[in-house]
Design a protein that fits this description.
With 184 residues, the chain is mainly α. It is built from nine helices and no strands.
């Protein structure tokens, strides 16, 4: 029975990822989740009490996977500049990933305070990854520099999602700009 519930919960989360990446937060409804999974709408409530609970669960499951991919990319770099480039490029490489599209849709939505706090904490963990590299470059305020660097990454993500420029062009420009800025 526990295995069945785990599988159903996983199916609901997968359906939520699809709905978010296809139609944004407006598409994430319990009737849509029920339809995608073949469950009765009342059954969806047995797994999640609210849409915010679905969002919180997605953040808890998906953000660590995404962050681990960024961290692994950084671990392969030998220099602080290499770590910064890996940090930027890996995040931008993940833009097309369904987990990333869901996280972006989630962050744009109106959430309750608990869900917003979980997202903030997850983003804080991502930013913390780059603080050491910035400190190694001699930044006197590496945490502030990391937050500003992440703002550049977030802007590049939005440009890629708009589809105006080629993703590789956005990534190359973002990396060049960030590296010039952090060497400053």
């Amino acid at each position: 029975m526990a295995e069945h519930r785990t599988m159903q919960r996983g199916a609901l989360l997968d359906a939520a990822r699809s709905l978010l990446s296809e139609g944004g937060t407006e598409a994430l409804t319990f009737p849509a989740l029920a339809e995608r999974t073949g469950l009765a709408r009342s059954s969806v409530y047995e797994y999640f009490r609210s849409r915010a609970a679905v969002v919180e669960e997605l953040c808890a499951v998906d953000f660590p996977v995404w962050a681990a991919e960024v961290e692994n990319a950084m671990a392969g770099a030998a220099t602080p500049e290499g770590k910064i480039e890996a940090y930027v490029r890996r995040q931008l490489d993940l833009v097309g990933d369904r987990r990333h599209r869901a996280v972006v849709a989630i962050s744009a939505s109106e959430l309750d305070a608990g869900a917003r706090e979980k997202i903030r904490a997850a983003h804080g963990g991502l930013i913390a990854m780059i603080v050491e590299a910035l400190g190694d470059l001699g930044h006197t305020e590496p945490r502030l520099a990391a937050m500003l660097l992440q703002g550049s990454v977030d802007a590049a993500v939005r440009r890629i999602e708009m589809g105006v420029e080629e993703p590789c062009s956005v990534a190359d420009t973002a990396v060049a700009m960030v590296l010039r800025g952090v060497r400053g």
